[in-house]
Structures are given as structure tokens and as C-alpha cells.
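[job 4471] stage=fold_predict status=RUNNING
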Amino acid sequence: MKTFLLRWLLDPLTSLLALRLWSRERSRRPYDAAWRLARVIRHPDELLYRVHGHRPDDPGDLLP
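[job 4471] inference complete, writing C-alpha cells
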């Protein structure tokens, strides 16, 4: 199941807010980042999870 669909099924209000944020700033922010921002707006206690989504999966990717 795609992440997009799973998010809509599990938390439609956050997904709707994310869609509104994404549509306003379509050229500057991908939908995943908009969804994480919407999640933090609705659930401020999850701020640490938002930061996790912006890090590479493998720390070795940062090395030259």
C-alpha cells in the first residue's frame, strides 16, 4: 500500500490539511514535507518525528 493512501486512511484530517498546505506552496515543498508539517500543527508533541523525515536513510550518504 502506498504511503499516500495509508496516510489518508489513517488520518484524513491531517492529510486534508497537508493537501491545503501543499497546494499553496506546490513549487517549494513536496507533499511529504507538507504532511509532516500538518502533523506537527495538529500534534505538536510529534515534532521529533518530523525531523526524522528530512534525514537520509544511510548516514554514509553524507560522506564524499
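[job 4471] summary: The first helix runs from residue 3 to 10.
[job 4471] exit 0
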